[in-house]
Specification:
2 domains, five-stranded mixed sheet, alpha/beta, abc type-2 transporter like fold, 65% helix, 15 helices
């Protein structure tokens, strides 16, 4: 069995490498997209969930918080009573911003002494964090102007102390470029697997495979392995480029990223083979890949945070493997996440991989 699968894998690689158009597709677009996205992509902000830790509770603190509550840009995600409750909310992205008002905030302002407000912000999405900081600064400016007018101050009373977690300098490339690992791995793997069975059927060689000792399951394994190897190599090369060329820090575990890549590839290969078994020609297979690829990228959180999408669309993203892999890649790069932390992303990918591969196998047997 292994010898037969090995022979089919070699055949698949030869078919890919001998076709000039396929070689160009595998090498050219990933390099171009890496450069374009790495230097040119930017994102916008829709709304900001924030959490409040108010140790003061005085009139000045209530007045400041009223400015945030009245802002359409911000949405309160909760209040905490201890400082150690802030970090988990930022870690799991329940809140993007945390406001920490000290115990003497109102007293200091009433005594005409400057008082500080600590602003903690999730810096993983640097563009979102920068826009959120601009809105925070605008609200603090409005509060300062009002307080100065009412109490005769000549200098701003509230002084913000800003800290960005995971991305201290809010470099947008740190957020964008790791996502390209997921994007280009998805594109290349889908192209390799999405055209494999359709190519055999269009060229008339599928019947030749069926009269060989190869069983249908062995044929599918032989079709899947080249996509797995090429996708894994693509992910490794792009990851090295992200670290060595774009200088994005890699804080997490290599094992955590490798496990995520393997589970992601299995899910994508299953989807690609399913598309290929449904297509009668390579043109139909390419169209099927395109029809899946665009929504998968849009619904992954690559450009628009999933939390900003309508609730019905958020449910739809749960069947998108790229959604989970993006969290894994960015978590490993920026947060230093390990396998235990990323378990909530691993098991959905494993389920999607099992489901897509089972569906592809069932469909291939039915077409035969």
């Amino acid at each position: 069995m292994l010898a037969r699968i090995y022979a089919l894998v070699i055949k698949e690689f030869l078919a890919l490498l001998k076709d000039r158009a396929t070689r160009v597709v595998l090498v050219g677009p990933p390099i171009i997209q890496l450069i374009v996205f790495g230097y040119a992509a930017t994102f916008d902000l829709n709304h900001v969930p924030y959490v409040v830790y108010d140790e003061d509770g005085g009139s000045a603190a209530r007045q400041l918080l009223a400015h945030f509550e009245g802002s359409p840009t911000f949405r309160i995600a909760g209040r905490v009573s201890r400082e150690d409750q802030i970090a988990p909310l930022l870690d799991n992205q329940s809140a993007l911003v945390a406001l920490h008002i000290g115990p003497h905030f109102s007293r200091d302002l009433l005594l005409h002494r400057p008082a500080s407000v600590q602003i903690l912000i999730d810096g993983r999405n640097s563009n979102t964090a920068a826009l959120a900081l601009n809105h925070v600064s605008s609200i603090l400016t409005a509060f300062n102007l009002q307080w100065m007018k009412e109490h005769g101050w000549r200098a701003p009373p509230a002084q913000p102390e800003l800290r960005a977690w995971y991305n201290p300098n809010l470099v947008s490339r740190w957020f964008i470029v790791p996502g390209i690992v997921a994007l280009l791995t998805l594109v290349v793997t889908l192209l390799v697997t999405g055209l494999s069975v359709a190519r055999e059927r269009e060229m008339g060689t599928l019947d030749q495979l069926l009269v060989t000792p190869l069983r249908p399951l062995e044929i599918l394994i032989g079709k899947a392995l080249p996509g797995f190897l090429i996708g894994g190599l693509e992910a490794a090369v792009i990851t090295l480029a992200v670290i060595l060329w774009f200088r994005v820090p890699f804080k997490g575990s290599v094992a955590a990223l490798a496990l995520g890549v393997m589970l992601f590839l299995l899910a994508v290969i299953g989807i690609g083979l399913l598309i290929s078994t449904l297509a009668a020609t390579q043109q139909q297979g390419l169209l099927g890949v395109f029809l899946f690829l665009v929504p998968a990228v849009i619904l992954s959180g690559f450009s628009t945070p999933v939390s900003n999408m309508p609730e019905a669309v958020q449910w739809l993203t749960r069947v998108n493997p790229m959604r989970y892999f993006l969290v894994i890649v960015r978590g490993v790069f920026l947060e230093g996440a390990d396998t235990a932390t990323l378990w909530p992303q691993y098991w959905p990918l494993a389920l999607l991989g099992a489901a897509s591969l089972s569906a592809a196998t069932w469909r291939f047997r039915k077409r035969l």
